[in-house]
Design brief:
Radius of gyration: 26 Å
Largest sheet: 4 strands, mixed
Structural class: alpha+beta
Strand order of the largest sheet: 4-3-6-5
Shape: rod-shaped
Strand content: 15-25%
Distance between the termini: 72 Å
Pfam families: PTH2 (PF01981), UBA_7 (PF22562)
GO cellular component, one term: cytosol
GO molecular function: peptidyl-tRNA hydrolase activity
Keywords: Hydrolase
Oligomer: single chain
Enzyme class: hydrolase
Number of helices: 7
Length: 190
Amino acid sequence: MMETVEQESSGEGQGIMEVNAEYLQQLRDLDIPEEEAKKALFLTGNISVEEAAIFYFDGLENQNAEAEDEHSFYKMVFVVNMELSMGVGKIAAQVGHAAVGLYQLLFKESKTREIAYRWDEHGAKKVVLQGSNAAHLMDLQALAISLNLPTYLVQDAGRTQIAPGSYTVLSIMGQEENVNKVTGKLKLLN
C-alpha cells in the first residue's frame, strides 16, 4: 500500500511523492518522526525500511558532526624567529611564505585538506607570534607534530637580510584549542 504525500519541490511549487505505508509504519516504530520517515523513504526510492533508516540515521550523525564543528574554531599561527634581524618587510614576506607553504602542504593529502576547508569556513583566523630562536621554533614544531597538527617551517634562501638556511617562521594550523597547547603562552608580534 502506498501513501501519497504532498512535498515541496525546489522552486516548482508542490510535488507529489508516494511512500510505502508499511515501511513508513516500521520507521515510525523505530521512533523516527513521521515527516523525516517519509522524506527518507522518498529519497531512497522506497527500496526498503533498512535503506530509509540508514539514510535517516546517517543524516543525524552528519548533523551532530556539523554541530560539533560549529563549536570548533580553526586558526593558523606564525611563530617568527626574533633572534634574526629581519625588517618589517622581511618578516611580512616570511610569514607569507609560511602561510602559502602550509596551505599547499594541506592540499597534498585529503585528510589534511579538510582542515584547510574548515579553517577557511571559520574566517581563516591568523595570528603572528614571537619565537626566541631557531631551536625554539623546532621545539614548537615537534610538539605540534606530536599533536597531529600540520606545520611548515620556512628556511630562508639568504638573498637579502639574513644568512642562507636560517629558520625564519614556523606556521601551524588546526583546531584553536590544540594550537593553543603549542603556542598559547607566546607573545603577539607587535
